[in-house]
Write a structure and sequence with these properties.
This protein is α+β, with helices and mostly antiparallel strands. The chain has three domains: 44 residues, no CATH class; 112 residues, no CATH class; 44 residues, no CATH class. The protein has a six-stranded antiparallel β-sheet with strand order 6-7-8-9-10-11, covered by helices on one side. The protein has a four-stranded antiparallel β-sheet with strand order 1-2-3-4. Strands 5-12 form a two-stranded antiparallel ribbon. The protein starts with a strand and ends in a 7-residue tail after the last helix.
Length: 273
């Protein structure tokens, strides 16, 4: 909820010297994210109100994320149905072109066709695509990426991409807006971060609350939200989830207190109040 006013917003604490006449908007910090907009800029944030700047995120660059399991799993499922748990030395598994789609508003907006040739411990994937990103189109591309397996400590094998640029093993290859080739992220690859890595403490608390409310088959709509015990859920389970909700709400309350403390230091109350 944003209130636009040139007077002191109703319910906002009194801080002498605070330029209320220039206040453009106040965000309800119990229901959203704690910051005050002053002169069109963020004046002050709450506890863990998130970072700005820095390297771009995968989500904001509209990045295609190609997970190796999304490519390998269907092929290995076919082999298991045929009685093979893995590809032995001397054998090869071939998979013809198969499309992998990304959706936006229920419609396909990007497609990568993949062709696989897998052997014992190593393999090759051919990628064929022409992605119409926001800034520019990739144009028709044909990229070959190597794969290899790594034995797991508790048995079995895992497949990994070998990044065409860095040569490192990775489970995901990325194609961000403006790029034309899939690469890994990190040194030598694309300098990108996941949004979750950049979230502040309060952002993570809101995310955890939303997840807890989904367990209660309810929608999280801010700190005033409440969910009854779902039918069929044990009372002890419900009470445990409520305790977890209270713990996250305490984090948000701490952030709100931190924000007001910073405001009071900047605009101290007169002595005697």
């Amino acid at each position: 909820m944003v209130r636009h006013t040139r007077d002191q917003p109703k319910g906002f604490p009194v801080f002498p010297g605070f330029p209320y006449s220039n206040l453009l908007g106040v965000i309800d910090i119990r229901r959203n994210y704690p910051f005050v907009i002053l002169f069109g800029k963020i004046l002050m944030g709450g506890l863990g109100s998130g970072r700005t700047g820095g390297i771009p995120t995968i989500e904001r660059t509209d990045c295609l994320v190609l997970n190796v399991n999304r490519v390998i799993t269907p092929v290995m499922a076919v082999l298991r149905r045929q009685g093979h748990t893995r590809i032995v030395e001397g054998d090869r598994a071939e998979a013809d072109w198969r499309p992998i789609n990304w959706y936006r508003d229920g419609e396909v907006w990007a497609q990568v066709e993949v062709k696989l040739s897998l052997g014992a411990g190593k393999g090759t994937a051919e990628l064929r695509y022409d992605v119409d990103h926001f800034s520019r189109r990739t144009g028709p591309q044909h990229q070959t990426v190597q794969l290899e397996t790594l034995e797991c400590h508790y048995g079995g094998w895992r497949w990994f991409w070998i990044c065409p640029t860095t040569g490192r093993r990775t489970t995901t290859l990325l194609l961000p807006n403006g790029a034309i080739q899939f690469r890994s992220r990190g040194p030598g690859g694309y300098k990108l971060a996941y949004q979750s890595e950049r979230n502040g403490i309060d952002d993570k608390a809101h995310a955890r609350l939303a997840k807890l409310f989904r367990k209660l088959k309810a929608e999280y709509d801010g700190m005033d939200s409440w969910a009854p015990r779902p039918r069929g859920m044990h009372r002890k389970t419900y009470e445990r989830i409520q305790q977890q909700i209270e713990a996250q709400e305490a984090i948000l309350d701490q952030g709100m207190a931190h924000l007001f403390d910073r405001l009071q230091k900047k605009y101290p109350l007169p002595k005697g109040n």
